[in-house]
């Protein structure tokens, strides 16, 4: 379901945005989709937007998948140089420092979970000088952020690791294709409670474009704007995903999972078999 970009423009203009907007969240939160959606929103205001891939946690599900498409839309995309962009190691482009001094906004995609915030440590002083907002995207149905206490703990751990302060939350509660309006509103209540406890603003409530109108009606008494989150990232096993064909080959993604002792299905919303996607 296509989204009218005028809606993105209206939503993004509700706030004043600093030079650098860093977005993070637990694995499965949807934080990379939010980087792309916010970047598209900023672009509707004629703002020059640079997107930096600083995901040192999950190299098989990140901005690197969609670099060509983003560049065709007029974004400048910063990734690690050469084949290092596909390495399962903490490599972040030094051009982030350059982007902090260049015109326009800088969107930074940070790896999932608190440890992903380590990518910001090397740029801490420059980011503070330039002005920043560190946003935590929360899916209330992920085990790392399923209570107010766990959300607060993740914020504090991120701040300790990167030396920056979380400045806002986004509620992006979902169960993939099993998401309902009730899923979104239930998650919103939890994230709103966490935001109030920490004294942080809740910028948006995310929902799918298909559920957007019903979600707006369900949250009509609330003051938080609803954002129809368009999906641009593909899961590693979905047709068209960079991990399914081409380089890196499918076996390379499988190798990474095996070396980590992980299953490629473990980072999904709870209780959703892969055949339902």
Concise account of the structure shown:
The protein is an alpha/beta fold and 277 residues long. It has helices at residues 5-12, 31-43, 67-72, 95-99, 118-121, 124-130, 148-162, 181-198, 212-218, 250-259, and strands at residues 20-25, 49-54, 76-78, 105-110, 132-138, 166-171, 202-207, 226-228. The protein has a single domain (5-233), classed as Rossmann fold, CATH 3.40.50.300.
Layout of strands and helices, then pairs:
Blueprint: H1 5-12, E1 20-25, H2 31-43, E2 49-54, H3 67-72, E3 76-78, H4 95-99, E4 105-110, H5 118-121, H6 124-130, E5 132-138, H7 148-162, E6 166-171, H8 181-198, E7 202-207, H9 212-218, E8 226-228, H10 250-259
Parallel strand pairs: 1-4, 1-5, 2-3, 2-4, 5-6, 6-7, 7-8
Following the backbone from N to C, one meets helices and strands in this order, namely HEHEHEHEHHEHEHEHEH
Q: Give the termini distance in whole angstroms.
A: 16 Å
Q: If strands are numbered along the chain, what order do they take across the biggest sheet?
A: 3-2-4-1-5-6-7-8
Could you say how many structural domains there are in total? Answer: 1
Helix content: 25-40%
Beta fraction: 15-25%
Shape: globular
Poorly predicted runs are: 82-91, 240-277
What is the number of strand segments?
8
| Rg (CA only) | 18 Å
- Structural class of the secondary elements? alpha/beta
Main sheet record: 8 strands, parallel
Looking at CATH, which topology would you report? Rossmann fold
The first-level CATH class is given as Alpha Beta
Question: What would CATH call the homologous superfamily?
Answer: P-loop containing nucleotide triphosphate hydrolases
Question: What is the annotated CATH architecture?
Answer: 3-Layer(aba) Sandwich
Q: Figure out the total of helices.
A: 10
Q: Oligomeric status of the shown chains?
A: single chain
Give the overall average pLDDT.
Answer: 80
């Amino acid at each position: 379901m296509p989204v009218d970009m005028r809606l993105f423009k209206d939503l993004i203009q509700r706030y004043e945005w600093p030079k650098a907007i860093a977005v993070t969240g637990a694995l499965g939160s949807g934080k990379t989709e939010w980087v792309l959606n916010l970047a598209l929103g900023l672009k509707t205001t004629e703002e020059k937007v640079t997107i930096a891939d600083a995901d040192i946690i999950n190299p098989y599900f990140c901005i690197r998948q969609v670099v060509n498409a983003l560049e065709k839309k007029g974004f400048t995309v910063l990734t690690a140089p050469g084949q290092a962009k596909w390495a399962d190691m903490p490599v972040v482009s030094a051009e982030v420092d350059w982007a902090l001094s260049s015109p326009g906004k800088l969107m930074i995609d940070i790896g999932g979970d608190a440890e992903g915030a380590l990518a910001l440590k090397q740029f801490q002083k420059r980011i503070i000088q330039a002005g920043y907002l560190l946003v935590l995207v929360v899916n209330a149905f992920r085990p790392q952020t399923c209570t107010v206490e766990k959300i607060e703990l993740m914020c504090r751990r991120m701040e300790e690791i990167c030396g920056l302060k979380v400045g806002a939350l986004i509620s992006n509660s979902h169960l993939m294709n099993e998401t309902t309006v009730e899923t979104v509103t239930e998650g919103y209540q939890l994230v709103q409670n966490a935001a109030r406890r920490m004294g942080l603003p809740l910028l948006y409530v995310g929902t799918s474009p298909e559920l957007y109108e019903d979600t707006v009606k369900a949250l009509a008494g609330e003051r938080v704007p609803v954002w129809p989150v368009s999906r641009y990232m593909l899961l590693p096993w979905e047709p068209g995903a960079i991990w399914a064909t081409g380089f890196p080959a499918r076996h390379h993604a499988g190798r990474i999972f095996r070396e980590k002792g992980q299953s490629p299905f473990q980072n999904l919303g709870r209780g959703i078999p892969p055949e339902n996607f």
